[in-house]
Specification:
Elements: E1 2-6, E2 10-14, E3 16-17, E4 20-21, E5 25-28, E6 33-38, H1 46-53, E7 59-62, E8 71-75, E9 78-82, E10 95-98, E11 103-104, H2 106-118, E12 128-131, E13 135-136, H3 139-150, H4 164-173, H5 179-183, H6 186-203, H7 213-227, E14 231-232, H8 234-243, E15 248-251, H9 276-282, E16 289-295, E17 299-302, H10 315-324, E18 336-339, H11 342-352
Parallel strand pairs: 6-15, 6-16, 7-10, 7-15, 10-12, 11-13, 12-14
Antiparallel strand pairs: 1-2, 2-5, 3-4, 8-9, 17-18
């Protein structure tokens, strides 16, 4: 097989079977994928920007994080809150994709779908595609998240206690369970779930009184049939969409300064929310990325612990909280506020290469 680039826009793939040349395929990459990323500590207003850009997109994707994210989109007199759903799903002509890099708490996902459908967003399940490779967040992970945070004493990270960190830990430890496991042989899923529970009980013996393995397995037996119609291998789906020049938008959750590698560690999230997480979280190649929109707010906010060089703890800070309605979408916690930090913004630009 040979590949040739033509003018930087087309890729020709030529395959030869013995001495018989096969037909060339031409992959047009002139409709690059758009990306929206946070440049600060999150809460910059990405949901608004995504909503503007999603007005004419055909596919909108989430590539990382879980329901620790919170994106708000206001349409008329209705405010839609999104945690796992890509907020571009507000566009009724848009298909939403939850990629392999996202960790999913299924009960919260279906609760989120119902809440937004009750507000008038219809057909969400029919327009949602979930990767077979996405890992599952269990109630067990959430309980462990709270226990780990409690054990930190004065060195609290400020986690949302949504189980995101422990779920990514399970993924890295290779005892996590994916959507594909849930939809496959249920005896295998049950066995692996029981092993996961035992793994955490050895660390936190008190979990033995909290986790009902049989009840959870019965619960997920129902959930797997509810989620089944939405699940597919998203890698070939997005590959074909790119070849077909579909208009695709990817929305990042959290932000660069919360990135597990580039943020103010250890006061960070558990995924790569910088531009590199796009490719690993969706399985798309870097050359298809076009505009990378870096979203910044005119002042800084953050939720949780950790350094904040420009923080305002005076009356001016409270004015920013009140006028900006600075309370977390996911947790409801009051956000810390401070002056805009241009050193931080330049740093984010170095890593992500914002085009706008």
């Amino acid at each position: 097989m040979a590949m040739a680039m033509n003018g930087g826009n087309n890729i020709e793939v030529m395959s030869r079977n013995g001495d018989v040349p096969m037909k060339k395929q031409r992959f047009n990459t002139r409709v690059p994928v758009k990306v929206v990323l946070g440049s600060q500590w999150g809460d910059e207003g990405k949901g608004k920007i995504v909503d503007m850009l999603a007005a004419d997109v055909e596919i909108c994707c989430r590539c990382q994080g879980g329901n620790n994210a919170g994106h708000t989109v206001v349409v008329g007199d209705k405010a839609y809150d999104f945690h796992l759903l890509p907020s571009g799903i507000v566009n009724k002509n848009c298909t939403a994709v939850i990629g392999n890099g996202v960790v999913i708490h299924l009960p919260n996902l279906f609760e989120e779908i119902k809440k937004n459908e009750d507000k008038g967003l219809t057909g969400l399940k029919k327009r949602l595609i979930i990767s077979t490779r996405a890992h599952l967040v269990f109630d067990l992970h959430q309980q462990v998240d709270g226990m780990q945070e409690q054990n930190r004493g004065k060195n609290l990270i400020g986690t949302t206690k949504k189980g995101i960190g422990p779920a990514y830990s399970s993924k890295a430890t290779r005892n996590g369970l994916r959507i594909a496991d849930l939809l496959g042989d249920y005896s295998y899923f049950s066995e692996q779930f029981s092993k996961l529970v035992d793994f955490y009980i050895r660390q936190f013996p008190e979990l033995k009184e909290v986790v009902n393995v049989e009840a959870e397995l019965e619960r997920y037996k129902v959930l797997r049939e509810e989620v089944r119609p939405m699940v597919r291998d998203t890698i070939p789906y997005l590959h074909k969409a790119i070849i077909d020049c579909k208009n695709i938008l990817i929305e990042g959750a959290q932000s660069n300064i919360l990135d597990i590698d580039f943020g103010l560690y250890p006061y960070v999230t558990s995924s790569n929310c910088s531009v590199g997480g796009i490719c690993t979280g969706l399985g798309i190649p870097p050359h298809v990325l076009g505009d990378v929109f870096g979203v910044a707010k005119a002042y800084l906010t953050r939720v949780g612990s950790g350094g904040f060089p420009t923080e305002l703890t005076c009356d001016k800070g409270q004015i920013l909280v009140d006028r900006g309605h600075e309370y977390g979408v996911t947790t409801g916690r009051r956000r810390r506020v401070g002056w805009l930090d241009m050193v931080m913004f330049r740093y984010s630009n170095m890593i992500n290469g914002f085009t706008s």
